[in-house]
Amino acid sequence: MPEIKVADVMSTGPVTVKAEDDARKAAALMEKHGIGCIIVTDAQGRPIGIVTERDLVSRVMAKGLNGDEVTCREVMSSPLITIDPQAPLVSAMAKMARHKIRRLVVLEKGKLVGIVTDRDILRVAPALIEILASKGEVEESYIKEVQVGQCEVCGEWSEDLREVNGHFLCEECRSEYSTRE
Fold it and tell me: Percentage of the chain surpassing pLDDT 90?
């Protein structure tokens, strides 16, 4: 039985908003498209965050803020946790469990190509169970801890953020941090 890849189940053409768009626009687009999240992009169109229904409830509505006066940048979750479309779906499941999230942004060579959700995975769960049973193990070599967004130290855009002591750092800041220790 062939292995199921992220590309086999992901949704393509994810809906996006600009970081400076207001939160109401994100909510309206989510309602229009019947989706539970929207990808936030910077001025160059690069994905930098995600706004979910939960973000809108907890960061706008629960605080009594006006959705017309709050930007998507202010309510988005960042940095993005991503996966390659050719990664095994079981790797996506492991990453989602490890980060306690329900959605992974799918990037191919740094380009936004889709999103995979827990619902996408549930649709193919019977086939996954069969694959895992026959294989006997999950290949961890496909799981990359690569995340995209802005470095928390220098603020520069990076497609290779890594967590160091609770902060997401670019390669240059990670190397500077390691030389200080």
Answer: 54
Six-digit token string for 62: 């629960």
Label each residue of the chain as H, E or C: CCCCEHHHHCEECCCEEECCCEHHHHHHHHHHHCCCEEEEECCCCCEEEEEEHHHHHHHHHCCCCCCCCCEHHHHCECCEEEECCCCEHHHHHHHHHHHCCCEEEEEECCEEEEEEEHHHHHHCHHHHHHHHHHHCCCCHHHCCCCEEEECCCCCCEEEEEEEECCEEECHHHHHHHHHHC
User: Of the given ranges (32-36, 47-51, 78-82, 121-125), which has the lowest mean pLDDT?
Assistant: 121-125
Nearest to 35 by CA among 48, 22, 17, 8: 17
Q: Which residue has the tokens 């928390």?
A: 152
pLDDT at 141: 41
pLDDT for residue 12: 93
Residue type, 130: E
Exposure string of 112-135, with b = 16+ CB inside 10 Å and e = fewer, is bbbbbbeebbeeeeeebeebeeee
pTM of the model: 0.70
Cβ pair 152, 79 in contact under 8 A: no
